[in-house]
Amino acid sequence: MSMDAYRGFVMFLMAAEVLRFEHISETLPESSFWRFLAFHQSHAEWFGCSLHDLIQPSFSFLVGVALPYSIASRQARGDRFGRMFLSTLRRSLVLILLGIFLRSVGRQQTNFTFEDTLTQIGLGYPFLWLLGFRSERTGWVALAVIMVGYWLAFILYPLPGPGFSYEAVGVPPDWPNHATGMAAHFNKNSNLAWAFDTWFLNLFPRAKTFLYNGGGYATLSFIPTLGTMLLGLQAGRWLRARLTDRELFRRFLIAGAVGLASGWLLTVTGIAPSIKRIWTPGWVLFSGGWCFLLLAAFYYVIDVRQWRGWAFPLVVIGMNSIAIYCLAHLIEHFIKDTFRTHLGQSIFEQFGPYEPLASGGMVLLVFWLILYWMYRKKIFIRV
After folding, report:
1. Which domain holds residue 97?
2. Has residue 246 got a pLDDT over 90?
3. How many other C-beta atoms lie within 10 A of the C-beta of residue 340?
4. Burial call 89-105: b when 16+ CB within 10 Å, e when fewer
């Protein structure tokens, strides 16, 4: 139950973007409270970490946590390796196509982009599944190879020359997040992942040539995202290892502390700074540390202490994570427009600066009621 509640928590954070704390903070610029909430409902500009930045790592981490249970369930049904692998490839393809579809809603043509959460998971999932049949030691070795290899590829890619135009790739020349030294290899839209996308994404039909991603996100991030899923795989194996509650909780805490400390160390030394937008090795470790600690907290409260009643709303969300992901991308504006149509066009505006809180709160309520109905009817969307 702790896994479903944790998954529900991160999916709630994703859906809660409809509350638009940033808009409220802009309306009330003197309020440190709303400024704090706005920061944690948006992504760090480049370096750093907010609560919102932990949504995608947590979702990816939990894919790994669930894998040992999925494999064991399929094996118990007598499924053979080949059949399971074909099912894995199908799932991967569906995730990739669903991610592209959701990023194409409202556009003139298909938006072939692969930095979306679902496409990133889909690209790495077959490799995760294969490693799920290997030993725990092999999993740790694979994680090390991924992080060192990804880091080395960035370091070996040459830095931009003196004539490089950052403005041409959407980065102001005086941008405060420009790093120097070894960390400069991870600067926005002048790194290996950016160079790869200027080739790869232009292989697909586009309205205009791809030059850069405004947020600095990149396709190649699926490689270190696989590292995050591998951390989850190890956590899932520990959960199934019949360890005592105390030993399991201790492992989660130690893994979390080691991840945070090593990610921080790589950042302050400039070796591999923690950057979520390109999923650096430092970010794999730092965000992975938080994932272990969050899982430890949910596990202790729900599965050890058996305090479960409060988590039911989160479980309803977590058991239909794909459904809430699609709802949040597809019908937010439909719900708001429906309320305005039937209750008056100014129904939300009467709340003044808190209008986003009122309209977003109603959207979240409708989302949850839909998921609750699905939960009662035992309708669970699986890919």
Report:
1. 2-160+171-376
2. yes
3. 15
4. eebbeebbebbbbbbee
Phi (first) and psi of residue 141, to 5 degrees: -65, -45
How confident is the model at residue 382, as a pLDDT?
84
Can you give the pLDDT at residue 115?
93
Q: Compute the Cα dihedral for 57, 304, 76, 133 and give only its sign.
A: positive
Q: Shortest CA distance to 61 belongs to which of 377, 275, 284, 211?
A: 284
Structural domains counted in the chain: 1
Do the domain assignments include residue 382?
A: no
Residues 158, 197, 43, 173: is their CA dihedral positive or negative? positive
Does 166 map to a domain?
Answer: no
Please list, residue by residue across 233-270, b when 16 or more beta carbons sit within 10 angstroms of its beta carbon and e when fewer do.
bbbbbbbeeeeeeeebbebbeebbeebbebbeebbeeb
Neighbours of 174 (CB within 10 A): 7
pLDDT at 330 over 90: yes
Give per-residue pLDDT as tens, 141-191: 999 999 999 999 999 999 998 889 999 999 998 899 999 999 999 999 999
Q: Is residue 383 part of a domain?
A: no
Angle between helices 117-131 and 222-239 (to 10 degrees): 50
Q: For the chain, state the CA radius of gyration.
A: 21
Per-residue pLDDT tens for 353-371?
Answer: 999 999 999 999 999 999 9
Q: Is residue 165 part of a domain?
A: no
